[in-house]
Design goal:
The structure is a single chain. By secondary structure, the protein is of the alpha+beta class. Helix 4 crosses helix 5.
Length: about 210
Amino acid sequence: MKSLEGPFPKFDPMNVPSNPTELFQEWFQFVIKNGVHEPHSMTLSTVDNLGQPDARVLILKDMDEDGWYFASGSNSAKGQQLKMNPHVSLTFYWSLIGRQVRIRGTSLRVGEGLSAKDFLERGGVARAIALLGKQSNILPDRKVLEESLINQIRRMKEKPDTVDPHWCLYKVTAREVEFWQGDRERKHIRLLYRLENNKWIKELLWP
C-alpha cells in the first residue's frame, strides 16, 4: 500500500514561533481549514505498573500556552497509570497533509470545578457510561451494558447535575515537542522544541 503520496504543504522550520504552543495552534488551524477529519483525535501513551507501554486514541479537549488538555476517569486503567506515573506522550497525525506532532511531558490533574464542567458538557450516554464506573472491566454480555445504561440514564434524569467524582480533566505540560512534516521522497522535516532551563531550544533532526 502506498503512503505519503501528497501533495503536502510547505514548512519552513527557520520561520517559526519561539515556543511550540504557538506553532501547534498554527498547525491546528491549518488542518481545520483543510478539512482534516477529527483533527483533535490524539494518541495518549502511558506506562503501566509493569513498565509496559500502553496507548489509546482520545480527544484533545483544549490547549493554551500552558499545555494540552484531555479528560478521563481517575479510576480507569489509564487514570491509575497516570496516578502511578504522570509522564506521558501525546501524538497527533494528520495524514491528509502529512503532518505529525509528538509531545512528551507530564500530566497534572486540573481543579474539580473544571473537571465537573467538562463532565457535564459530555453527551448523556457518555456521562451514563462514566457514572457506571466499569471502564476496562470484563463485560459478560452486551445486554448487561444496555440494561445498566437504561437504569443509569433514568437516575440522571432525576438528578441531571450528577457529576462522576472520579472524572478528571488533565493538563499535559510539555518538555519536548516535535513537529514533523512528511515528504514524498522521505526527506522529512523534523523540528524539535526542547525545554532547557525554562527556555525553549529549537533543533532540526535528521529524517
